[in-house]
Queue: 3 jobs
Job 1
Amino acid sequence: MPTLRHMIVNLLLVLLGALPLGVQANEAIWQALEEGGLVMLMRHALAPGIGDPPGFERGRCETQRNLSEEGRAQARAIGEAFRERDIPIGAVYASRWCRALDTAELMELGDVEPAPWLDSFFRGRGDRDVITQAAREQIVAWEKSGNMLLVTHQVNISALAGRGVGSGEMVVVRPAADGLEVVGRLDVRAP
């Protein structure tokens, strides 16, 4: 958890305009996450390529596009950043694709539950509307004190939040009665 001194220094830097906007935005998101009750829509860590190769089978990682060594290190570093800030995590769900499950497990933020409602629907792999509606229902129902981490895919995040993210980035949302409210974007890779 950031110390009072750390928070005061960052506040002064923000007020003086000395921190870049991305860092300022990240600090605001980190502070919101410390309070809990939010949902993080995270794109799996770096897995070079697009989609999955011919012969893809869910449950057989050797047939899928998987995390690179850089992606594995990225997932571990993101988890470490959450632990350093003592961000409360109430639940961790991941798409059943190996790159999403591996990302969530390498972050070491809690038990990972595979969730079909986070599976990719890229290139007709699943029903976009059904998957998006099921995920939205899970998000709206979140009322715990900790935060919920959902490790999924670019297409899913775009369908839910109306914006995309890079590998390992997140869109943080607040559950609302009429859907979800985007709180902001979190890029743990930012300084």
Job 2
Amino acid sequence: MTGLQRLFLEHVGLPCGRVWVSDDLAAVAVWTTPTSGEPDLDALGPRLRELAGDRAAAAAAAEEAMAPHRPTGPAWFLATVGVAPGRQGEGLGRAVLAPGLRAAAEEGHPAYLETSLESNVGFYQGLGFEVTAQVPLPDDGPVTWAMRKDPA
């Protein structure tokens, strides 16, 4: 997981997205935006497959299963968000997500995310997201929720 999070931060968020971190670096949110450009997925492919290991085929099948539920128009996509385990519950996740949600709304674009933790669904609903799909992933993958927040 650490390698995957680092990849999203270094090769997606920083070069072609937006990143917000808490002052103490205990929390981070990484977004792609309609104007941020696309990461070079061909270049990232080998590293993604390496990180997925023997689950690479399952990861590809999961991407295929989620694709129909993703926005087709311009949207802010939450690539990843994380809070240091010892700091969870302090509001840091909300704090690093807020600037991206504001920016998406100011631009008139929806925000979109996917989560495979049912416990996260209520957290995101509290931020104004609505579940748009609940997808059982193939190859014994988890149920994943597609969630969207339309601009106010």
Job 3
Amino acid sequence: MRILVVGAGATGGYFGGRLAQAGRDVTFLVRPGRAGRLAGRGLRIKDPDGETVLHPRAVTAPDGVYDLVLVAVKSYSLDLALSGAAPGIGRHTVIVPLLNGMRHIGALVQRFGADRAWGGVCMIHATLDEDGDVVRMNGPHRLSFGPLDGDDERVPAVTGVLTGAGFDARASATIVAELWEKWVLLATLGAATTLLRGSIGAINTAPGGRAFLTALAAETAAVAAAAGHPLRPRAVAMLEAVIATTEPTTSSMYRDLIQGLPVEGDAIVGDLVAEAERHGGPVPLLAAAHTGLAVYTAAHR
């Protein structure tokens, strides 16, 4: 099975790199600058177990049709990435996006059809360092994937190629529910840390911090429920545990913001505010975070 990984940042570089390391037929679709970096330095993955140096195949345009396409870019780069990947997507290609929020699902279905667009959820705490190397910190490195309607004859083949590659991977018959649950978690983390400019632990130890986090989590969960995707018990427990921590937990959005980088404010926070407006639910805390992120984005555009 030919695999095209669109993007070789922290997420695409890690999962695509591990797949290549496991002997899968992996090609990275990247911009010219990243292609040059990979050619000269290789793809380096640093994690708690050590450092792995790979020399994967990288192209700046697809060279044929691929069986599986993993899309691992930020939401604000999605349109450009899909235009670049389109020549490599055939009639029977499976597309698994590793993006946050839900807007990318609609974009994929509209462009390539529901038969090719699947859902994907990854959990990993990773970043690129100053050398462009992938650095994975402690914590999970797992991937779930599946067709949006839960049923597709290609599931066994995709499962076979994505499992056994050095990270936790599984097929899911409820991938849409998982997408919503991750969205609620990330929106809560992103809104809290960017609005109050600190970690969850710091917020919890500040006056009114715990009450703020509890109210914000209630808002985000209520939006999902109003949209027809209530959190399941396990997701509720995870959300409650995350907002109760005293550890210096942050969000990738917060880390990008403090570095002056573009943020996914619209896709993660703004779209959830829009969902709340469609269903008539008040989300004052989430809306305040969205406004703050919009001000930041306008100033750093």
